[in-house]
Design brief:
Blueprint (H helix, E strand, L loop, with lengths): L1 E5 L5 H10 L9 H10 L3 E8 L2 E10 L4 E8 L8 H14 L6 E3 L6 H9 L18 H4 L14
Parallel strand pairs: 4-5
Antiparallel strand pairs: 1-2, 2-3, 3-4
Helix pairs in contact: 1-2
């Protein structure tokens, strides 16, 4: 039997191992810090799927005040095609329902066609927009270029 429940902080190490096995981590992100932030916030959590007490799937979810988001959906390769990913998404949707989320979004890396097919198969639609980001923590001079303001002919702006 598969049990679904929110993770607790003692589950983080096992979650990170799963994310690494599912190739969800990236060198520029700290998955432990991501998990700690998700579990420490009032508007986010990580839903886990457990078989015989072992973590076999996760989905991180959060509410930003405008829409729901899902991240780190991953299922152990030995348990794929059992409907666990779909159930994790349903648990996220139910959890986000407490906030009245009118829409849920997620991001899929452009090279991950299998994930895109999965989301389409469970009723998610692909949108067309561009994603912009900035990493915080750099000095202001490294992250923001000063604007050039051009004045009028008289030299006044």
């Amino acid at each position: 039997m598969i049990e679904f429940r929110p993770l607790v902080s003692s589950d983080i190490g096992e979650a990170v191992k799963l994310w690494e096995a599912c190739e969800l981590t990236r060198p520029w992100n700290d998955p432990v810090a991501d998990a700690e932030r998700a579990l420490g916030g009032p508007c986010s959590t990580i839903i886990g799927a457990f078989a015989a007490g072992h973590l076999i799937g996760t989905a991180m979810t959060g509410w930003d005040g405008h829409r729901g988001w899902i991240y780190y959906l991953g299922v152990d390769k030995d348990f794929r095609r059992w409907g666990i990913g779909r159930k994790l998404i349903l648990h996220c949707e139910e959890w986000l329902g407490q906030f009245g989320a009118p829409k849920i979004q997620l991001m899929v890396r452009s090279e991950n066609d299998a994930a895109a097919r999965f989301y389409e198969a469970i009723g998610y639609e692909e949108d067309s927009f561009r994603l912009f980001y900035r990493r915080l923590g750099r000095s202001r001079s490294q992250s923001i270029r000063p604007a050039v303001i051009r004045g009028t002919k008289s030299g006044k702006s």
